[in-house]
Amino acid sequence: MIISTKKGTPQVEVQKIIDSFEAQGLQVTLIRGTDYNVFGLVGDTTKIDERQIRANPWVEEVTRVAAPYKLANRLFHEADSVIDVAGIAVGGNAPIAVIGGPCSVEGEAMAVELAKQCKAAGATMFRGGAYKPRTSPYAFQGMETEGILALVKARQATGLPIVSEMMGEDTVDEFEEYVDLVQIGARNMQNFNLLKAAGKMTRPILLKRGLANTIEEWIMSAEYIMAAGNPNVIFCERGIRTFEKYTRNTLDLSVIPILKQKSHLPVIIDPSHATGDWRLIESASLAAVAAGADGLMIEVHSAPECAWSDGAQSLKPDKFAAVIEKCRAVANVVGRTM
Ligand code: PEP
Ligand code: MN
CA 66, 67, 68, 70 torsion: positive or negative? Predict the structure, then answer.
């Protein structure tokens, strides 16, 4: 971190600044100019809040050189992290993960049947929402525990690991017991108590990007989970809010190379929520694989027009199979398998 003080800052104030950083265990290097002083802080600056430093009236500028995250940082963990989801590897050079399934679980028979169809299409994990974060309190809120138990049946029938969204800390025990990959939804990306609770779980976490969050904020949320003790985090880009109306969200594929540069954690793409339109899923999926995604999460429903949520962005199983087949060809081109 580099800090400069205002022209004419009294020596006593300069010394106070040095003392305060040294008291926090940092090494301070001072470049004394005729008008300005510039400090370099060496050491662990993750605990330093640059906005707090700016509150000092003698401070002119503060520049962060090191990222504010450590555990998620590629700098301190050069190799790609490969996350084990109940026997399915995600990240590194592992086959590209394919998560398919309905937005909402609509019953046991539906979950079992659809899981079989997703598996036949090439899915390596099965998703389904049992606790749904809906904009309207009058919309279907999910089958809750019954939905989770339906997913368990789907896993028993297919062997596919199950993925589901955990909305509150009150369900941590249930998810720890039954769910192989615990999703933290976009709306909860900065629910810090939920992130801390996820950090105490032994299950891997699928951390979706918030609707309007920067990549750095997203990595900081992963850092929360990791700092609480759970190193197994997978990023999931699901589109962000922009001015564009032709799509539900705007798919930000730039996160793939950026996250891979900044972090060692895997990143998967959810083209369903990113586009909101089943017609756009194929293009978005092909582009995601070409850009180096470690996985795809796609909503699948046998009768999208009747789905209890997100039918418009759900593929029928045969179309889902066709998309995976095309993606496989792209995966081969970029040196991955699927
Ligand atoms: C979902 O996966 O069904 C979901 C609600 O996703 P998001 O949190 O990205 O909106
Ligand atoms: Mn959905």
Answer: negative
